[in-house]
Write a structure and sequence with these properties.
Layout: H1 5-16, H2 28-34, H3 40-43, H4 45-64, H5 71-87, H6 97-114, H7 117-125, H8 128-159, H9 163-166, H10 171-178, H11 201-230, H12 236-264, H13 268-285, H14 289-317, H15 323-352, H16 360-378
Helix pairs in contact: 1-7, 1-8, 1-10, 4-6, 4-15, 5-6, 5-10, 7-8, 7-15, 8-12, 8-14, 11-12, 11-14, 11-15, 11-16, 12-14, 13-14, 13-16
Domain Major facilitator superfamily (MFS) profile: 6-384
Membrane topology: Multi-pass membrane protein
Subcellular location: Cell membrane
Length: 390
C-alpha cells in the first residue's frame, strides 16, 4: 500500500487544513460590527490566538507522534478539535466574546496537533524522487486548501459573520480520509546497545532560518493592501488579486519542486532565497501594480522551494524516530516568525528612523535574502547526525 493512490491522497489531506486559520480573515470586519464594545486589538485575537495556541501544540504533537501516541490517534484528536473548535462560534452568536476566544484556542490546539504530522508521514512512507514529489504536492494542496477556506469564508461572511466559522467543517474530508490511513512502521529510537541519538543541531538551525524567513515575508502579506492604496495602484480588489498570486506562485513551485530538487539538491534552498530577494526587490522598488504581481508570484515560488527542501534535508539529517519532533520544531518556528514580524520591523524602523516608510520592511528583506542566498552557497550546512545525501 506504500505507493497506493489512496495513501498519497490520505497523507496529502493532512496539508489541506494547514491554512485553515485564514478562514475567518475576510469576516473580521463583520465580527467587529457584531461586537462593537470589544477593542479592535482584542478582536484580532479571534485569529491570532489560534496561531499562538498552535505553537505549543505543534511541539508536543511532534514529540509524541509515533513513539508515545500513534500518528492516526493524534491526527484524529487534532481534526476533532479543529472541526469542533472551528465550527463552535457559529452556535455562539449570542455568547460573550470571551467564550468565542476559548473555542478558537481549542481550534488552534487542533491545528497545532495536525500541522507537524504531514511532513513526518511523507518521510515515513516515501523515499527518493517519490518523497520529493510528495513534498512538492503537499505545498500545492496546502495552497488549494488555503484558497478554498478563505474564499468560502468570505462568501459565507457576506450572509452573516457566524456563517464563516461553518467552513471549518471542510475538515471532515481530512478526518474521514485519515480514519483509513495506515500507521507507519514504528522505528526504534536506537538499536540494542546503542545510545539514544541526539537531535542534530541542524534542526535548530533550520528552525531559526524558517523563523526569520517567515518574519521577513510576513509584511508582504499584511501590508500589501496599504501599499497599493497609498500609492494609487488600486483598491481592495487589486490587493486581493496581488496576494492571490502568492498562493498561485506557491502552487506552481510545488508542482515543479521535484524536478528542481533533482537538479539543485540542497541548493534548492539557495534558489528559493534568491527568488525571495528578487520578489522583495520588485515590491520594494516597483512603482506599478505589475511589479506587485511579479513580486508576490516569485515570493510564492521561492517559498514553495524552501519549505519542502528544509523537510527533505531534515529527513536526511535526523533519525527516522526523530522526524515528528524535528517537524514540530520547524513548524512552530514558522508560526512564531509570523507573529513576531511586526514587532521586529517596528523595532528596526524606530532605530533607523523609518517608521513612516511603509516599504522599509521590503528593503531589509531584499538585502537579507540576497545575502542569505550567497552565504548558503558558500557555507553549506554541516553534515550532522544521519549523513545527508548530496
Amino acid at each position: 500500500m506504500k505507493n497506493s493512490k489512496f495513501l498519497k491522497i490520505a497523507v496529502l489531506s493532512v496539508f489541506f487544513v494547514q491554512m485553515g486559520v485564514g478562514t475567518i480573515t475576510p469576516a473580521i470586519a463583520n465580527i467587529a460590527a457584531a461586537f462593537p464594545t470589544v477593542p479592535f486589538t482584542t478582536l484580532l485575537l479571534v485569529s491570532t490566538l489560534a496561531v499562538l495556541m498552535s505553537v505549543p501544540a505543534t511541539l508536543i504533537s511532534g514529540r509524541l507522534a509515533g513513539s508515545v501516541v500513534t500518528y492516526k490517534t493524534l491526527l484524529i484528536i487534532g481534526m476533532i478539535l479543529f472541526i469542533g473548535g472551528g465550527v463552535a462560534p457559529y452556535f455562539m452568536a449570542t455568547s460573550s466574546f470571551t467564550a468565542i476566544l476559548i473555542v478558537r484556542a481549542i481550534f488552534g490546539i487542533g491545528l497545532g496537533i495536525t500541522v507537524p504530522l504531514g511532513a513526518a508521514l511523507i518521510i515515513a512512507f516515501f523515499d527518493g524522487e517519490e518523497r520529493a514529489k510528495m513534498m512538492g504536492f503537499s505545498n500545492v494542496v496546502a495552497n488549494v486548501g488555503g484558497i478554498l477556506f478563505q474564499m468560502l469564508g468570505g462568501i459565507a461572511a457576506t450572509a452573516s459573520w457566524e456563517y464563516a466559522f461553518l467552513i471549518h467543517g471542510l475538515g471532515i474530508i481530512t478526518l474521514i480520509l485519515i480514519l483509513f490511513l495506515p500507521e507507519p512502521a514504528k522505528v526504534p529510537a536506537q538499536a540494542a546497545g546503542e545510545a539514544k541519538p541526539k537531535l542534530p543541531g541542524s534542526v535548530f538551525g533550520f528552525a531559526l532560518a524558517i523563523f526569520f524567513i517567515m518574519a521577513l515575508i510576513y509584511p508582504m502579506l499584511v501590508n500589501m493592501s496599504t501599499i497599493i492604496a497609498t500609492t494609487g495602484m488600486g483598491g481592495a480588489a487589486e490587493a486581493a488579486l496581488v496576494l492571490t498570486m502568492f498562493t498561485v506562485g506557491g502552487m506552481l513551485g510545488g508542482l515543479i519542486f521535484a524536478k528542481v530538487f533533482a537538479i539543485f539538491k540542497k541548493n534548492s534552498l539557495a534558489l528559493g532565497l534568491a527568488l525571495l530577494a528578487v520578489a522583495m526587490t520588485s515590491i520594494g522598488l516597483g512603482n506599478s501594480i505589475i511589479f506587485m504581481y511579479i513580486g508576490t508570484t516569485l515570493a510564492g515560488i521561492g517559498f514553495a522551494f524552501i519549505i519542502p527542501t528544509v523537510f527533505m534535508d531534515l529527513g536526511a539529517a535526523v533519525h527516522p524516530s526523530q522526524m515528528p519532533t524535528a517537524s514540530g520544531i520547524v513548524m512552530a518556528a514558522l508560526n512564531i516568525g509570523g507573529f513576531c514580524s511586526a514587532y521586529m520591523f517596528a523595532f528596526l524602523a524606530g532605530i533607523m528612523g523609518m517608521t513612516e516608510n511603509i516599504k522599509f520592511p521590503f528593503y531589509v528583506s531584499l538585502i537579507v535574502f540576497a545575502l542569505a542566498a550567497v552565504a548558503y552557497l558558500i557555507i553549506k550546512p554541516q553534515k550532522d547526525g544521519v549523513p545527508q545525501p548530496e
